[in-house]
Automatic annotation (TrEMBL):
Record gene name: LOC100904443
Coiled-coil zones: none
PANTHER family, alphabetized: METAL DEPENDENT HYDROLASE - RELATED, MYG1 EXONUCLEASE
A single cellular component GO annotation: cytoplasm
One matching Pfam family: MYG1_exonuc
Family: Belongs to the MYG1 family.
Protein's UniProt name: UPF0160 protein MYG1, mitochondrial
InterPro entries, per the entry: MYG1_exonuclease
Length: 334
């Protein structure tokens, strides 16, 4: 049987088509496909699928370029119930058309299964959108950033291109492109593994903790997680919304290896600000116990987002004491 061919452009490569090709190769029909890197239309014509070159987006013809002037698609424009409005790159396009199928195979669940759908959305939001935005030159925020991140996947893939003073042959570039695809594939598979096997199962744990919040404290603002290290933040925001109690939870207590922690719920996902930071910032041990009036305190972080006590009740006491200065009308107060 003649192996299938995936076409993409030659010359300098970027993360989006490396990931697009890697994603296609996760599908059974393209698992043994060859990559043909060229801008020659006659050669591209011989390919079973073409990404990031050719100036055509037509899924029915397996053509996935996003460079043509007419192309303005986003996840939202292609499916109205998706909220994301960043212009797609070739990675986003392939993910839109084949992502659910790829995830269904990897997660061994039907594509329509709630878990597959949850992970599909999550991986777009936490991973693919970044590749789309960087490829299309969409800044992360308005104004000047105070530093640059040069270790993201897009930078690392870019760094695999042959350097100006290295071998400049098409063969050398193709070899490097194989490494770029491998890097992108590894990152994608890591994300799938994390979100389906660690992140998703944590949701039930967080839900249970939220349901039992009044058993922890009568304010209903403190939850207790049975385990440390379990990803709770985004689940907490989602479940608050499901239950119609947005903004109500302020502290999370959980065990660390030998002691207990009290941690603030951030103002929003990824924010460094909290709904109500702990007082006694930067204090430790005796001084902290004196100031808080709670025995056995170990520390409060300088930014006030986390503190520790040697007992569970101590950590709970710290959360309760901190709540005394909390006012729901002033949630941006740190
Ligand atoms: C890309 O391929 C075209 C034809 O396939 C060739 O003419 C051109 O020199 C190549 N460019 C680079 C940078 O390799
Ligand atoms: C309030 C409270 O229970 N604090 C505890 C913090 O940890 C120390 C050490 O175990 C306990 O002695 C405190 O009672």
């Amino acid at each position: 049987m003649v192996p299938k061919k995936i076409g993409t452009h030659n010359g300098t490569f970027h993360c989006d088509e490396a990931l697009a090709c890697a994603l296609l190769k996760l599908l059974p029909e393209y698992s043994t496909a060859e990559i043909l890197r060229t801008r020659d239309p006659a050669l591209l014509e011989t390919c079973d699928v073409v990404v990031d070159v050719g100036a055509v987006y037509d899924a029915s013809k397996f053509r996935f370029d996003h460079h043509q002037k007419t192309f303005q698609e986003t996840m939202h424009s292609l499916r109205a119930d998706f909220p994301w409005e960043i212009k797609l790159s070739s990675a986003g396009l392939i993910y839109f058309h084949y992502g659910e199928k790829i995830l269904a195979d990897l997660m061994k669940r039907p594509a329509e299964h709630r878990d597959t759908q949850t992970v599909y959305r999550k991986i777009y939001e936490e991973f693919i959108i970044e590749i789309d935005a960087i490829d299309n030159g969409v800044n992360m925020c308005d104004g000047d950033t105070r530093y640059r991140i040069n270790t993201g996947l897009s930078s690392r893939v870019g760094g695999l291109n042959p350097k100006w003073n290295e071998e400049q042959t098409p063969a050398a570039a193709d070899r490097q492109f194989q490494l770029a695809m491998k890097l992108a594939e590894t990152e994608f598979l890591d994300k799938v593994n994390y979100y389906s096997n660690a992140w998703l199962p944590a949701k039930e744990l967080v839900r249970e903790a939220i349901n039992k919040r009044y058993e922890v404290d009568k304010s209903g603002r403190i939850i207790e997680l049975p385990q440390t290290g379990c990803p709770w933040k985004d689940h907490l925001f989602d479940i608050e919304e499901e239950l119609g109690i947005q903004g109500e939870l302020i502290y999370v207590i959980h065990t660390d290896t030998k002691s207990y922690r009290v941690q603030c719920v951030p103002l929003k996902l990824g924010a460094f600000d909290n709904r109500h930071s702990l007082p006694w910032r930067g204090l430790r041990d005796d001084e902290l116990c004196r100031e808080s009036g709670i025995p056995g305190c170990i520390f409060v972080h300088a930014s006030g987002f986390i503190g520790g006590n040697q007992t569970r009740d101590g950590a709970l006491e710290m959360a309760r004491a901190a709540l005394k200065t909390y006012s729901p009308d002033n949630v941006s107060e740190k």
